[in-house]
Amino acid sequence: MTSYLNTENIGRSKGGVEYHPLRPFLPENARVLFLGSFPPPRKRWCMDFFYPNFINDHWRIEGQVFFGDRHHFVDAAAKRFKLDEIVAFCRERGLAFFDTATAVRRLQDNASDKFLEVVESTDIRSLLRLLPHCRAIVTTGEKATETICANLGIPVIPRVNTSVAIPGTFNQDGDAVSLYRLPSSSRAYPLSFDKKVASYKQMYDSL
What we know:
Layout: E1 13-14, E2 17-19, E3 32-36, H1 58-67, E4 74-75, E5 80-81, H2 83-93, E6 95-99, E7 101-106, E8 116-121, H3 124-129, E9 136-139, H4 142-152, E10 162-170, E11 176-181, H5 193-206
Parallel strand pairs: 3-6, 3-9, 9-11
Antiparallel strand pairs: 1-2, 2-7, 4-5, 7-8, 10-11
Helix pairs in contact: 1-5
């Protein structure tokens, strides 16, 4: 099994600063780049990949959208997600993943974006140079969206279920790259699972 851990950064903390524990997942055929804020504390992980918290519904939403089964990527008995199947799916569908921060301070010991202080932002344009066919960056949270807008000079923060063009940004196919904002897959976000699924479907259908 391939590891996506950045082993140099596992458990690395200096002066209260926590460094990103995962390497970017960037299939060359990717048309969509999901950028979150930062992984939750490692004690909340059920796998070594993005959206690792078992009570986060990102992979259930993907399962429902593409396979009509919210449990497609869920190993219920082990209370974890099926990492190998997720990675194969993302490579096949052209889905890339990383986060908008490479280093943060947690102001509280939880996974809430509200208590994350971004210390180092990700060089997003460098990621895009490695994704020649990318058509959209997708965020699913307010902090990630705000960080990207500041990073890329986007003057208006998009509302949920809307997109904006990223100024002066095109892929090698000549397509403009957009920033698309989806509702959070966290269960703390006040929207039904079915409505979140509909939002994801709308996004994928637009690309």
